[in-house]
């Protein structure tokens, strides 16, 4: 949803549009460092309001040679961010100086972009996760739609920040193998599938190492829906909810 503001620049009125509410959104991204690099998981759903309208949206993308980006939130704003990054990487490559932007530089750039748009009262409605590997060093950070950013060994957006982070705090360690890292991410995504109405059982897991980025083909998790609490989820509930 957008609204139009007439702006008087002294010569004529120009229209300026602002996003009031995101239309098509993606839910949680979960990412962790492991011993060889970074792993990132996301499902492929796109919700039109509360309707799961799209089921084939890729929300994890390679950025240049050393970075991997995942996004929650408005899909069209994510596409706009990818256009910004395409221009950034192209400009970097044109220097042809033997150097290339690493994940820390891309993360700082995204922080500035998000904070700049927030200050214009026209934010990009996304929470971004940026991971990468350069010169043998793994990097993982996050930036919110208002430009708040941080680095950590594991991050999650959306419902994942509430439901997946406790699992990661208990079970993550720096020497995780690729196989154990994938199992940990799948455990988090399974919990989100059970508890987040916007999640779908179709996900991708991406990894980035010194060798580059690999994104898995979409696949589904094995689930179990016969837990007693699922049969009558409102039993014992208090109040009008």
UniProtKB/TrEMBL annotation:
The lineage's top-level taxon is Eukaryota
Q: Which Pfam families match?
A: Proteasome (PF00227)
Q: Which UniProt keywords apply?
A: Cytoplasm, Nucleus, Proteasome
List the InterPro entries hit by this protein, alphabetically. Answer: Ntn_hydrolases_N, Proteasome_alpha, Proteasome_beta4, Proteasome_bsu_CS, Proteasome_sua/b, Proteasome_suB-type
Q: GO annotations under biological process?
A: proteolysis involved in protein catabolic process
Please tell me whether the keyword Cytoplasm is annotated for this protein.
yes
Predominant cellular place of this UniProt entry's protein:
cytoplasm
Secretion signal span: none
- Localization in the cell: Cytoplasm; Nucleus
Q: Which GO terms describe its cellular component?
A: cytoplasm; nucleus; proteasome core complex, beta-subunit complex
Membrane-traversing stretches: none
Look up keyword Cytoplasm and say if it applies: yes
Please describe what this protein does. Non-catalytic component of the proteasome.
Q: Which PANTHER family match?
A: PROTEASOME SUBUNIT ALPHA/BETA
Q: Which family does it belong to?
A: Belongs to the peptidase T1B family.
Q: State how it assembles.
A: Component of the 20S core complex of the 26S proteasome. The 26S proteasome is composed of a core protease (CP), known as the 20S proteasome, capped at one or both ends by the 19S regulatory particle (RP/PA700). The 20S proteasome core is composed of 28 subunits that are arranged in four stacked rings, resulting in a barrel-shaped structure. The two end rings are each formed by seven alpha subunits, and the two central rings are each formed by seven beta subunits. The catalytic chamber with the active sites is on the inside of the barrel.
Q: What is this protein called?
A: Proteasome subunit beta
